[in-house]
Specification:
297 residues, alpha+beta, 5 domains, 4-stranded antiparallel β-sheet, 14 helices, globular
Length: 297
C-alpha cells in the first residue's frame, strides 16, 4: 500500500509521529490513524493533497498528556478561554469540559468556566424560586428543582451558599425527618444520575456511590444514612460498576468512536483507546476479540 500520508512530526509534541493507514470500508478512501508517544491520537481521511493537509484532522481519539499539560499551563497563566482554545486548536466547550474533568480550580478561571449568560440564568431561576416559596429551606427548594440545584452546587457552589435561605435552629416541636419519603425521593433521582454518568464519556466515569452522590448533590446523606435509605442503597448497589464492567463499557464506547470514523481497529488500538491496563486484559480479552471480529464480518 503506498504511503498516502507520509511521515512528519506530531502537532502537539514535535516528535516523529507513527501513522497507520486503512481504507474506509464504505468509500474505500484511505484513513490514517496518527499515534504519538505524547499520547495524542487522531484520525484523518486522505489522501493529502497539499502540505497544509498535514495539520488537518477529522476526529481526535485521545488528546494525551502533553495536550493536558499545555491546557493547565495556559489556564494557570490567566489566558482567556478563547485564547486557550485558539492555541490548542479546539473550541471553547472542549476547553471547559477538560478543565472540569481535570478538576482545575485556579481562582483566575473559577468564574469563567461556564458561559456567563447560562450561569446568570441559573442564578436568576434560583432566586425566583426563593421569592416564590418564602419560608422554606434549601432542602425543600432542592426538591422543587433538583437539576437547577445540582448544577449550581457543582459549578457555582460559593454563590449558591451565599444566596440560599439560612438554616434555622431545630426545635423540639419540629417534625422528625420522614426517612421513608426521603428514600422515595432519592430513589427516583438515582436512575437519572446513573444515565447521566454513563452519557458522559470524555472521559468515562465509573458508576459508583461517590459518582452518583456527587451527581445528585447528596453524597454526604447517601454515605452517612445508608441504613435509613434501604431502597436507594440497594438501587445504587445494583447500578455500581466493577472494574471489569467499567472496562467493558469503555471498550464498547471506544469501538463506537472508531466506527464513527469508519475505522476497524486492531485489538491493541482498541485497548489503548479504552485505557485498558494490563491487569484487566485477561478479563476483557474475549470481548475485545468479539468487538473487533464483529466489525470485520
Amino acid at each position: 500500500m503506498p504511503d498516502t500520508f507520509g511521515n512528519y512530526n506530531c502537532r502537539q509534541s514535535g516528535v516523529l509521529i507513527v501513522a497507520h493507514q486503512r481504507n474506509n470500508n464504505l468509500t474505500r478512501e484511505p484513513v490514517g490513524i496518527f499515534t504519538c508517544s505524547c499520547g495524542f491520537i487522531y484520525s484523518r481521511k486522505g489522501p493529502d493533497k497539499s502540505y497544509d493537509d498535514r495539520a488537518r484532522f477529522n476526529r481526535v481519539i485521545v488528546f494525551g498528556a502533553v495536550w493536558e499539560e499545555n491546557l493547565i499551563k495556559f489556564a494557570s497563566s490567566g489566558l482567556s478561554l478563547r485564547e486557550i482554545a485558539r492555541r490548542l486548536g479546539v473550541d471553547v466547550k472542549t476547553i471547559i469540559r477538560h478543565l472540569s474533568r481535570l478538576q482545575f480550580s485556579d481562582p483566575t478561571h473559577s468564574g469563567n468556566l461556564y458561559d456567563t449568560d447560562k450561569r446568570d440564568g441559573y442564578r436568576n431561576r434560583w432566586q425566583s424560586n426563593i421569592i416564590s416559596n418564602q419560608g422554606i429551606g434549601v432542602k425543600a427548594l432542592r426538591k422543587l428543582a433538583p437539576d437547577l440545584y445540582a448544577w449550581l452546587y457543582r459549578h457555582d457552589g460559593k454563590w449558591l451558599q451565599d444566596h440560599s435561605p439560612r438554616k434555622t435552629i431545630a426545635s423540639k416541636q419540629q417534625e422528625q425527618v420522614d426517612w421513608n419519603q426521603r428514600d422515595q425521593d432519592l430513589l427516583g433521582e438515582v436512575a437519572w444520575a446513573v444515565a447521566s454518568i454513563k452519557d458522559y464519556t470524555h472521559p468515562a466515569v465509573k458508576v459508583s456511590v461517590s459518582a452518583i452522590g456527587k451527581k445528585l448533590g447528596a453524597l454526604a446523606i447517601i454515605q452517612r444514612k445508608r441504613d435509613r435509605l434501604p431502597m436507594t442503597a440497594q438501587t445504587i448497589a445494583d447500578a455500581e460498576e466493577t472494574r471489569v464492567s467499567f472496562a467493558e463499557r469503555r471498550l464498547r464506547t471506544a469501538m463506537e468512536n472508531f466506527k464513527a470514523s469508519y475505522i476497524i481497529p486492531e485489538e491493541w488500538e482498541l485497548l489503548k483507546a479504552a485505557g485498558i491496563r494490563d491487569d484487566l486484559y485477561e478479563h476483557v480479552s474475549a470481548l475485545v476479540g468479539e468487538l473487533c471480529q464483529s466489525e470485520r464480518k
